[in-house]
Every structure is written in structure tokens, then in C-alpha cells.
User: What shape does this take?
Amino acid sequence: MLVAVLSDVHANLAALQTALAEADQRGAGAVVCLGDVVGYGPDPEACVDLIRERSGATVLGNHDAAVARDEGLAVLPKDGQEAARRHREWLDDDQRQWLAGLPLMVESHGATLVHAGPRAPASWPRLNSFQAVQAQFGAFETPICFVGHSHKPAVVSDALGVFTVRPGHRFLVDVGSVGQPRDRDPRLSFALYDTDAGTVETVRVHYDVASTVARVHERGLPARLAERLRTGE
Assistant: This one.
């Protein structure tokens, strides 16, 4: 089966719709989501509803926790704090309760799904060093663990020198961000995981950035949240 692995939608409806359309066109038979459905962007209500409809497995992200559980708000950037407060007001009780009830980590389609990292997932680890990444391999047992959080796609193996997915090795795969890429490439990012072949493809697709930028301004969110979408920073 071909599984579309999405993460960090961040209330960007145009990007989410484009990602799902691309996954459908490529024949994905399932969709999963690694969290941060909300935060930053202009359309948290529609994005929550669409992920609830399409994703067979969704885990909690730190922005989801800030919005729905009032956890970790103070450690977010100031623009992120403002967006989280607005999102909390915009979402209805049912949407907030759904977000609040999401698990930190699940296994689905033979893979581990977690927002930031499987080791102490509630601490939202930043996997920005070799040591931090390698420490994660002791915290999951499946061949592949999918993460997001960094907004930058990457693949790391537990065996040095191995760059292709093959039996006998384990992989930590960051799928990047659907709604707010930060690798200076404004195209949305997600992964397609072929559970039969054991392969993972990173997919980059252009979406209507201008429409999301306009929505950010329309809903009165901080202007910086719109401008960074243009540059992917």
C-alpha cells in the first residue's frame, strides 16, 4: 500500500488540499498525519475537519497541545503564541476535544508515527545533531519512524553509509511540512511510503501560496506568518 505521510499542516488549507490531491493522484491508499494540524496559519477549523476526515492515524503536535490543552504556549515564538490563542477561539468544542485527545505516538502501517521524536515525545525534541538523532533509535522498534516538527525533510539510518531503504536497517524519516516549509523552499512537503517495497519518496509540490498569504491578512494574524510562506523560512 502507498501511504501519504503528512505533518505540520499548520492551518494552511490551500497546502493541505493540494497535498491530498497529489497523494490521491499518485494512488495513495491511506493518509496519516504527524501532528501540528493547527498553529500559525489562517484556517484551523477547515484543516482539523479535513484531517479528521482523511487521516487514518493522527498524532499530537506541540501546537495542537498549545491550542487544545493549553500546554507549552509560553515556549512558542510570539507570533505562534498569538496564532494559538486565536485558534483556540476559532475552533469549536468538538474540534478542540479531538485535538486534545490525540496520542503522542502510534504504530500504523508497520511504521512508528510521532511528531518530534519517539524518545520523550512530550518534550518535543529538536533533532538537530547527530547525537540527538541517534538517541531516537532506541525508542522505536519498527523499521521506519516518521517525524515532522523541524519542517525540513530528511532521512537518517541507524547504520552509517546506508542511504537506501532495505531490509535489515532502520530509518528515521522527517517528512517536512505541508503548511510551513522552512528549508528555503516554499513548496509543500510530505512523504509517500510504499509498505510493500519499503521505499519512501519525499514529495515537493507548489501550492497557491498567495491565497494563504491573503487569508493570513484577512483573519488578522501577524504579518510575519504570511511573509515566511513566500520564502519557505
Residues 159-164 have pLDDT under 50 and may be disordered.
